[in-house]
Write a structure and sequence with these properties.
- The chain is mainly α.
- It is built from twelve helices and two strands, in the order H-H-H-E-E-H-H-H-H-H-H-H-H-H.
- Helix 5 packs parallel to helix 8.
- The mean pLDDT is 83.
Length: 343
């Protein structure tokens, strides 16, 4: 019986209602990302690193296609065409159309030198009439080749030396570190110059000189990382189960230090390019008439006040390469850092 103070409530509201079966939403199954995939995802978010990677790809591709893309032989001398300014087909801007200032007026240097109308030097020529565009392409290829080979040797020797000392430990590691300190006590520049002076100047001597001193930082980084990783539980478990040191290094340590090694390698490439450029600039690098960025800068700075383009072009290429490698290495370091938050 309903109370006079409460309204009449229909009885059907007190009946249990069977709820309709709910349709469960399908569970999205996402594939877990590997370490390399996660690093690539982080790297793609870094616009500076991606831009630098694109620039490096273009420069490396063009440099190693120098035999195909070069319009002239880089070592052939043509004295009547010496010190010609750049002339780019379709450009009418003074300084890029074959005109140069002479006694306050713009003069067509190509017409004065009797250069045929169909012959163009987009980057001008040097004092011996050699095409600077062709020499820049070949010189960039030589500098990159030396840097890449030196970086590979730096990677190989440094990783092997650091792993061997850290895994062996004890007196062996102590002796190896003392040897490392003795070599590191000699200044890099002195060691490189002495090596080049003992051997004949050339690409092989530069690579050997760079390799003798550049692997030390890599070895120290690998040793430090190996000493940290070898104390972890899964490495100790693998050792208890009877895994050999080589198996532990290949399966457990190298995959975990690959990011650090890759970043260090990327930083070592511009360092090698700078050393090669410096050695060639002071005259103890590449042999004449072979060109590198250092020899081009050496020839350009002598006539910089008269023909500035002969120095600006290789200097610009060198700056772009160095800046691109460093930006890409910075982005790679951030991408490989597992503690880094999403950019």
């Amino acid at each position: 019986m309903n109370s006079p103070l409460t309204p009449d409530i229909p009885e059907e509201l007190f009946r249990f209602r069977l709820s309709s079966p709910t349709v469960e939403e399908p569970v999205r199954q996402t594939r877990s990302l590997t370490f390399a995939q996660d690093a690539w995802r982080r790297l793609r978010k870094n616009r500076a690193a991606v831009t630098a990677l694109g620039i490096l790809f273009v420069i490396i591709t063009v440099a190693f296609l120098a035999p195909v893309l070069s319009p002239h032989n880089p070592n052939v001398q043509n004295i009547p065409h010496s010190n010609l300014p750049p002339r780019i087909p379709g450009f009418s801007v003074n300084g890029l159309n074959g005109f140069a200032r002479f006694r306050g007026a713009w003069v067509d240097r190509y017409a004065a030198a009797g250069v045929p109308a169909g012959v163009h030097y987009p980057c001008g020529t040097d004092e011996f009439g050699r095409d600077l565009l062709s020499r820049t392409l070949y010189g960039t290829r030589i500098s990159l080749t030396i840097a890449f080979i030196a970086a590979i040797l730096d990677l190989t020797i440094g990783v092997f030396y650091g792993l061997a000392g850290a895994l062996k430990g004890g007196r062996t590691d102590t002796v190896m570190q003392r040897i490392l300190e003795i070599i590191n006590g000699v200044p890099n520049l002195v060691l490189v110059v002495l090596t080049i002076l003992i051997f004949r100047p050339g690409m092989l001597s530069i690579i050997l000189a760079l390799t003798l001193s550049s692997w030390i930082p890599m070895a120290r980084i690998v040793r430090a990382q190996t000493l940290r990783i070898r104390t972890l539980e899964y490495v100790q478990a693998a050792r208890v189960l009877g895994s050999s040191p080589i198996r532990i290094a290949l399966l457990h340590i190298i995959p975990n230090i690959s990011g650090t090694v890759a970043v260090r390698t990327m930083f070592s490439i511009p360092t090698a390019i700078f050393f090669e450029t410096f050695l060639s600039f002071i005259g103890v690098g590449m042999k004449i008439p072979n060109a590198s960025l250092g020899t081009l800068l050496n020839g350009g700075y002598k006539v910089f006040r008269i023909y500035p383009y002969q120095m600006w072009i290789p200097a610009l290429i060198l700056c772009v390469i160095m800046l691109s490698f460093n930006l890409f290495a910075d982005g790679l370091r951030d991408a490989f850092d597992p503690r880094m938050k999403d950019l």
